[in-house]
Amino acid sequence: MRHGKKFNHLGRKKGHRTSMLANMACSLIEHKRINTTLAKAKALKQFIEPIITKSKSDTTHNRRIVFSRIRQKAAVAELFRNVSAKIGDRPGGYTRIIKLGNRLGDNAEMAMIELVDYNDSYVPKKKKPSTRRSKRGSKKSDDQVKDQIEVAPAEEAPAEEAPVEEAPEEAPVEEAPAEEAPAEEAPAEETPAEEAPAEEAPAEEEKKDDKK
Hints:
- With about 210 residues, the protein is mainly α.
- It has a domain at about 15-120: CATH 3.90.1030.10.
- The chain is about 65% helix and about 10% strand.
- The chain has helices at about 15-30, 40-55, 60-70, 75-85, 130-165, 165-180, 180-190, 190-210, and strands at about 35, 95-100, 110-115.
- It has a 3-stranded antiparallel beta sheet.
- α1 packs across α2 (about 40-55), α1 crosses α4 and α3 packs across α4.
């Protein structure tokens, strides 16, 4: 009879059951996840979590206690060296059990037990805390961007007025023909020279009078 015995014996005597759980614990520490039956996974969870808690403080006493439970030096070294650094900030719940359905042979419930911190797909990413200030800041930044977009065309307006300032430079080019006008009046001044023979006519008349 099993009156008052609340844990699962797993169909084994105490020595066999303890050795089996120790071997499974070493495999879990080495491979970070193993597949087994659901009943064994639950028993392993109760067996290994106090051992992982001991590994958080690396002392000789804790190492001896852990070694007395799992009895493999390589597993103890891995637990205190790497696993303890990974789960140092976690207050508990170092393992996770995921059901895998029933086994084909005997229809036993199967499950995967794994160390929580070694599965990146199940670990939620930490989100940055969102505050109202950050939202307001984003709105302000949007308004600033809009202001810059509106100001940019106003600053470009003087560049379009630049050709208007170039108009005075073209004015002297148009005045150049006006300066050539006096050159055309020069023949008008030669007209008195043509009248000179008319003045010589009296001189010839005086010569004729003298001959007479």
